[in-house]
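Re: your question from the hallway

Yes, I did run it. Sequences:
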Amino acid sequence: SYELTQPPSVSVSAGQTARITCTAEVLAKQYAYWYQKRPGQAPFLVIYKDTERPSGIPERFSGSSSGTTVTLTISGVQAEDEGDFHCQTADSSGSVLFGGGTKLTVL
Amino acid sequence: QVTLRESGPTLVKPTQTLTLTCTFSGFSLSTSGMCVSWIRQPPGKALEWLARIDWDDDKYYSTSLETRLTISKDTSKNQVVLTMTNMDPADAGTYFCVRTAFDSWHFDFWGQGTLVTVSS
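Structure:
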């Protein structure tokens, strides 16, 4: 089991909205980060500090936080958004935690 | 432009020591605030952070693996080296070299990863 809980898979039709959650007690106190990994490619950061989007990441990616749950939302999902999404945080002692990953399928 | 590239053996035998090298560009590990980590992903499993080294040579290890890991850097060569002793088939997976944010422990640039198989 993983300390950050993500759904194993999410499926949405192209153009619809995908929401991927990540839950853990520590997320009420620490920021969350989201990474996307496409097959055969390096992971890359899509959301940092719960809600911030790095430069170059499309505006359709957004993040939110409520209590112990953070959510990655992809509005108007495109085929290129398919892949695995991983949430991550670090607790106050510097222990790095990853979620189990969520496979996003675009129908 | 920040890039990182992992290199090392693709196959190691059980009980052997794995040595991986990360060669990076676009930043310097002699610059205050720069850090590099190693992260791995066994097939079908979650990402797992292994170790981190900072510009000032501070080092951090996963508590579950710290007895087997050593991380070091060669600033002149822009390289970070990870060694993992006593390899086991459970250690197989893709190993990533990743630039790490000093204060928040998040990972802003990743290498492509290198796949390591552990088999006799």
